[in-house]
Amino acid sequence: MVDFETLARPGVRGLRAYDPGHDLVALRRRYVEAQLVELGSNENPYGASPQAKQAIVDALAGIHIYPDPLGGDLKRALAKHHGIDSANLLLGNGSHELLMQFAQVFAGPGEDVVASKFGFAVYALAAQAAGAELRLAPALSRDAAMPRGHDLAAVLEAIGPRTKLVYLANPNNPTGTWFGAELFADFLARVPEHVIVVVDEAYAEFVDAVDFASALPLVARHPNLVVTRTFSKAYALAGLRVGYAVAHPQLIAVMERVRESFNVNALGLAAAEAALADAEHLQASVAGNAAQRAALAQALLARGLKVSPSQTNFLLVEFGDDAGRIESRLVSRGVVLRPMGGYGLGECLRITVGTEAENRRLLEALDEVRA
Ligand SMILES: *Cc1c(COP(=O)(O)O)cnc(C)c1O
């Protein structure tokens, strides 16, 4: 038989598929009675807006027809929400799809893509799949105020003559750290205008730090800036796959050429529009997360663990040499966290902030397995 590995393009040959963590479906079946506590994927435990769920039910009558290939209604709602134009918007089957496509469109063999060490794993995949070289800027130190966070000065330094694209996450997954508005404005002013800067703001809705600002208002002045957002996290629609990018209309128009015509499905379009309109529900999720994030961080610190500051719905926690053993013993007690070996952080676990009851079960299980 032919070796399909050798048929694949060079960028794809060395690639390892995205690691989604545990096989959750299998684990759910195994722990039906114990009720699995799933704190591994940064999903929103408060669930989607009731209005979004109703919009899905209403949209069911139309699922025999193709969805709106332009996503016009959702784009108009997003444009109004952010004070931008529909032409600034690109819709994706989750923002993951768009993050991959930016590299496909703008970077290739002989060119490079810059990201930060401990940045979101998809950026490396995107660069490699496009056949471009990945240049990783060193992260801030483990002991910095933002442990392992993006070092924008180092990112700037990593940009070279062949750099086409820069990926940043603010706040970042898996570190939970963020960079401030002034640092970023300074950074952006120094990036050559032919280098596209993608700022992934998947967790922006959760942020309450006063030094943080979304990069969205900078899009009007910086045609090389792209900001991505998602309905998967604070809006609690991860199962439907809806994300979007905001950028200069001409950049969006280039991206539109490779977008699969019906990439966002009808239920996703309807639900996202309704979720966006339900500000009250979003606010409740964000407030619940903020309160539980603080309480969980406090409880972990009280147990002598090192917890990174977080503006997201998860915490990066250092467990030392024990991390792997603790993680697997937690799974056997029906509590799922995300191992960080893939990020070169084998001593850490990433913990999604759950509801009060979920966090309590996590802490109880943790006390058992660490005893
Ligand atoms: C969860 C996440 C995404 C969102 O992915 P979707 O494809 O929109 O569900 C994007 N970036 C980061 C950093 C994330 O953690």
From TrEMBL:
Domain of life: Bacteria
Pathway it works in: Amino-acid biosynthesis; L-histidine biosynthesis; L-histidine from 5-phospho-alpha-D-ribose 1-diphosphate: step 7/9
InterPro entries per record: Aminotrans_II_pyridoxalP_BS (IPR001917), Aminotransferase_I/II_large (IPR004839), HisP_aminotrans (IPR005861), HistidinolP_aminotransfase (IPR050106), PyrdxlP-dep_Trfase (IPR015424), PyrdxlP-dep_Trfase_major (IPR015421), PyrdxlP-dep_Trfase_small (IPR015422)
EC number: 2.6.1.9
Required co-factors: pyridoxal 5'-phosphate
Aminotransferase class I/classII large domain location: 36-366
GO BP of this protein: L-histidine biosynthetic process
Oligomeric form and interacting partners: Homodimer.
NCBIfam families recorded: hisC
Protein name: Histidinol-phosphate aminotransferase
Native species: Thermomonas aquatica
Gene (UniProt): hisC
